[in-house]
Amino acid sequence: MRKIPLRVLYVEDEELIRVMMVRFLERFQFSVCSAANGKIAWDLFLEYRPDVVITDIKMPFLDGIQLAKKIREKNVNIPIAAMTAFSEPEIIEEARIAGVNEILIKPIDVEKIRELLLTYEK
What we know:
Low-confidence stretches: none
CATH topology: Rossmann fold
Number of helices: 5
Number of domains: 1
Radius of gyration: 13 Å
Order of helices and strands: EHEHEHEHEH
Strand content: 15-25%
Number of strands: 5
CATH class: Alpha Beta
CATH architecture: 3-Layer(aba) Sandwich
Helix content: 40-55%
CATH superfamily: Response regulator
């Protein structure tokens, strides 16, 4: 078992959803850093060095697919989960090509995110 909390970078442009999800994840002893868009998330990724990234796909400034590509240039092993309200195969395929490991369709089941993160703790 890990002695230090799993560091999670959570990226979501909808403020209410972001705040609620951060609170939920912190209740389960994850260390969470959050960003409102991909541009902020990229800077936080470099500074915070998370263990896992969970990002929305559709965001202003730098979307989740562009963010995943930038992350993969720096770190090929970090798990990346992408959230989307759009389940079109083209978007999902583009995300997978960018290096996303998990696709989560909105509305997100918070328990599913918790279970996913627990698999990365081991």
